[in-house]
Amino acid sequence: MTSILITGGAGFIGSHLTRHLLQTREAIRITLVDNMQRARMDQDLQTLLADPRVTLKQLDLTDWASYVALGGPYDEIYHLAAVNGTDLFYKIPHEVLRINTLSIHFILDWMRQYSPNGKLCFTSSNEAYAGALESFGQLPIPTPEAVPLVISDPYNPRWTYAASKLIGELFCIHYAASHNLRAFIVRPHNFYGPRAGYNHVIPQFSERIHKRVEPFAIFGSEETRTFCYIDDAVRAMALLMASDATDTRPIRTFHIGDEEEITMLDLAKRMCAIEGWTPATFDVKEAPSGSVKRRRAAIDAIKEAVGWTPTTSLDDGLRKTMEWYRAFPKL
Ligand SMILES: NC(=O)c1ccc[n+]([C@@H]2O[C@H](COP(=O)([O-])OP(=O)(O)OC[C@H]3O[C@@H](n4cnc5c(N)ncnc54)[C@H](O)[C@@H]3O)[C@@H](O)[C@H]2O)c1
User: Fold this and answer.
1) Which of 19, 79, 84 to mutate to test the pocket of ligand 1 (most atoms within 8 A of CB)?
2) How many domains does the chain have?
3) Environment class of 138 (CB within 10 Å of its CB; exposed 0-12, middle 13-18, buried 19+)
4) Which residues line ligand 1 (CB under 6 A)?
5) Does the global pTM surpass 0.85?
6) Is residue 161 part of a domain?
7) 21-38 pLDDT, tens per residue?
8) Residues 103-158: pLDDT tens digits?
9) Residue 82 belongs to what domain range?
């Protein structure tokens, strides 16, 4: 029986990862730990919890007593818990730093004591190098893992999240080396799908399309991004966890993202086409200051390590996502 721990397990990625593991593996026991700060006890989560192989523990991962309550050992540990969401970077930057850095520090301390033979997946972010893109603007696109991680302005609260991820990566690399722990780092690049919250571009476009909002405003219409459907994303994480390509010393970092780059204007048009509705005007507005023009991950490392490539087309992923947001609109 494989014992799996998913921190932040009731959130977006955690719930899809749980579903994927339940569908693809038999002899597993999954413990989700979440303080429910962001996650909701909705229908999707209840369905997962109805499976006898899944348990949810409501604990705060900034409190060491929670780790004692978790016990161990666990074979596979996915550390997803973090304060996430751009609005929160501006509202509570000090908490973003405290919660995200304390929890990765505690997870590593706990692993050393309670699960020394387990393997840890730490979810960093593409934000860890976004400051380098913004400051130097000359990073290669697609961007490989080995680029400088930069905090371009420590006074701008936006960068507290990136800083917490950057520190988390350093903790993992050096703690794993010093204590001989197995670990790897992933940098998600815009995962999307059902249950991703309501503050990202796809849920927001979806809501406005469903409500037929006119004029249809688009900030930074020529900026490009890539979007990775959540089923592909969690499959990538599980493949990396199962592979001996992540048993290396020093530990490795992998980008997970899609390769199809799309402008914000084209994204809106694609979503409108799926809905079969076109607004009379797309109201094109300036991008917020400091916003990066292009972002696209190089994914050669994960391809070479585990043979992963995304298989969900953007149209299919958008269709499934829009259906979910139609069924579960923002309250
Ligand atoms: N979704 C993406 O595209 C994306 C991109 C880059 C990085 N990431 C990273 O991936 C991880 C998961 O992201 P997500 O999109 O599922 O976010 P999410 O907000 O849906 O999930 C995070 C979960 O952590 C929980 N949590 C927060 N603080 C906690 C604490 N102190 N104790 C216990 N639980 C706590 C929240 O309640 C939430 O359910 C995060 O670390 C995030 O930074 C995600």
Assistant:
1) 84
2) 1
3) exposed
4) 8, 10-14, 34-39, 60-62, 80-84, 99, 103, 123, 125, 188, 190-191
5) yes
6) yes
7) 999 999 999 999 999 999
8) 999 999 999 999 999 999 999 999 999 888 888 877 899 999 999 999 989 999 99
9) 2-192+230-259+297-310
